[in-house]
């Protein structure tokens, strides 16, 4: 069985590091793994999407299509809604509550949509939304939000705890490891 995970956000939020960590965890767990990075206007705060696919059987393509994602990890709330059509029935969205205004909102051509969590819940989506920035900030650095989000999603990712922790330790730069592990542990403690 192949597990399909989409990581979505905007440029600069750490989604590429998150995909590296998940890919490493999947390899270390003995799975066949494919990772694909799809960059949007990442330098300008545009949408960034990464696909991570892994399983016991051979994974031939890194791409996840509509209705195929088991899990969507989202670093930004509107990106959760934008990529919702890719979630399979019975899938899970784990998202940050952070709102980053896209260009149409910045220039006044649109408004940031309200009540996105409630709208997704109304579609019977299993959505788990957290104030990830606060977890990371309280751990010492808001930039650890990506690792905190992975801690919040650990129960739906399908890895043993020690495998995911080891992947974080392997992929995060040494100078940022302590604060990232603190953010990961704080997130894990939140969900029990």
Strand and helix layout:
Blueprint: E1 2-10, H1 15-28, E2 32-39, E3 47-55, E4 69-74, H2 77-82, E5 87-96, H3 103-106, H4 116-122, E6 126-130, H5 132-139, H6 145-157, H7 161-171, H8 174-191
Parallel strand pairs: 1-4, 4-5, 5-6
Antiparallel strand pairs: 1-3, 2-3
Helix pairs in contact: 1-7, 5-6, 5-8, 6-8
**CATH superfamily placement:** Pyruvate-ferredoxin oxidoreductase, PFOR, domain III
Largest sheet composition:
6 strands, mixed
Q: Going across the major beta sheet, what is the strand order?
A: 2-3-1-4-5-6
Approximately how much beta-strand content do the residues carry?
Answer: 15-25%
Low-pLDDT residue intervals, each spanning 5 or more residues: none
The total number of structural domains is 1
**CATH fold description:** Pyruvate-ferredoxin Oxidoreductase, domain 3
| CATH architecture descriptor text | 3-Layer(aba) Sandwich
What is the succession of H and E elements?
EHEEEHEHHEHHHH
**Name of the CATH first level:** Alpha Beta
Output the radius of gyration. Answer: 16 Å
What is the rounded distance between the termini?
27 Å
Category by helix and strand content: alpha/beta
Number of strands: 6
Overall mean pLDDT:
91
Helix % is: 40-55%
Overall geometry: globular
């Amino acid at each position: 069985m192949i597990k399909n995970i989409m990581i979505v956000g905007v440029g600069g939020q750490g989604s590429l590091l998150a995909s590296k960590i998940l890919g490493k965890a999947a390899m270390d767990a003995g799975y066949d793994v494919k990772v694909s990075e799809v960059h949007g206007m990442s330098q300008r705060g545009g949408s960034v999407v990464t696909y991570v696919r892994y399983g016991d059987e051979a994974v031939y393509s890194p791409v996840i299509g509509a209705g195929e994602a088991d899990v969507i990890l989202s670093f930004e709330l509107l990106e959760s809604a934008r990529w919702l059509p890719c979630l399979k029935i019975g899938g899970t969205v784990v998202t940050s509550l952070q709102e980053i205004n896209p260009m149409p909102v910045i220039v006044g051509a649109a408004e940031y949509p309200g009540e996105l969590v409630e709208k997704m819940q109304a579609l019977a989506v299993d959505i788990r939304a957290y104030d990830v920035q606060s977890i990371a900030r309280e751990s010492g650095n808001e930039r650890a939000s990506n690792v905190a989000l992975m801690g919040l999603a650990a129960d739906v990712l399908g890895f043993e705890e020690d495998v995911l922790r080891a992947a974080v330790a392997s992929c995060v730069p040494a100078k940022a490891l302590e604060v990232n592990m603190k953010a990961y542990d704080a997130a894990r403690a939140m969900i029990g």
